[in-house]
Amino acid sequence: MTALVKTGRYIGATIAYRLSGEAQWPAQIHDCKAAIRWLRGNAEKHGIAPKKIIAWGSSAGGHLVSMLGVSHGVKELEGKIGNHTDQSSRVHAVINYYGPSALLQMDDHPSKIIHNAPDSPESQLIGGPIQENRKKTKQASPLHHVSKDDSIFIHFHGTADPLVPYHQSVIFHQALQKKGATSQLIIVEKGGHSMPAIYTREKVIPFLDELFD
């Protein structure tokens, strides 16, 4: 984000949210949506363009920004946190760095993690084994909220990601396109669970500059 802010064209803000050791789903998305509403409620004070809010996250953060992009108006995911509940939690676009999108399908592809295990990160988030809590797990999966009115998406994922199978971004991107939403997918051949810093300058900033041209 540093390179983005240094352009002088964008303002950066970092969202803090409760981790799975502190609270179970949907506390995390409630916190994120409260943060977006706060930004809008304080837009004039901080020079923020309220109609041009972008969410960018990687891994677990990629999952949460993806949820922000597809769950606008889903009552049970909005929450009632903060002093700006009159503001919208919608984001204009999402930059998803290798975030999970379909938690129930993660073990369908190679990974160093057994995602269906009771102690997996996903099961800890849900509060129980994900395959035994399928309804709640689907609610926490961006893939199951896709619609034509979703935010604009750009996804980045390495084909050799050892923690979040790159197939997660492939199926999410395809689902968005099928519904008529705007989505781009950049697959990094042999890339792992990270993104080269140069991608901010070469991919992310041009994406945003074109978006707001």
What are the main properties of this structure?
four-stranded parallel β-sheet; Rossmann fold; alpha/beta; 9 helices
Describe the structure.
By secondary structure, this protein is of the alpha/beta class. The chain has a single domain, classed as 3-Layer(aba) Sandwich (Rossmann fold), CATH 3.40.50. It is 37% helix and 11% strand. The protein is built from 9 helices and 4 strands; from the N terminus they run H-H-H-E-H-H-E-H-H-E-H-E-H. It has helices spanning 2-6, 27-41, 43-46, 60-70, 75-78, 121-126, 134-139, 167-179, 198-211; strands spanning 54-58, 93-97, 152-158, 183-188. Strands 1-2-3-4 form a 4-stranded parallel beta sheet, covered by helices on one side. Helix 2 (27-41) packs across helix 4. It is globular and about 45 Å long. The protein starts with a helix and ends with a helix. The model has no long low-confidence stretch (mean pLDDT 96).
Put the structure in a nutshell.
This protein is an alpha/beta fold. The protein has helices at residues 2-6, 27-41, 43-46, 60-70, 75-78, 121-126, 134-139, 167-179, 198-211; strands at residues 54-58, 93-97, 152-158, 183-188. The protein has one domain (2-211): 3-Layer(aba) Sandwich (Rossmann fold).
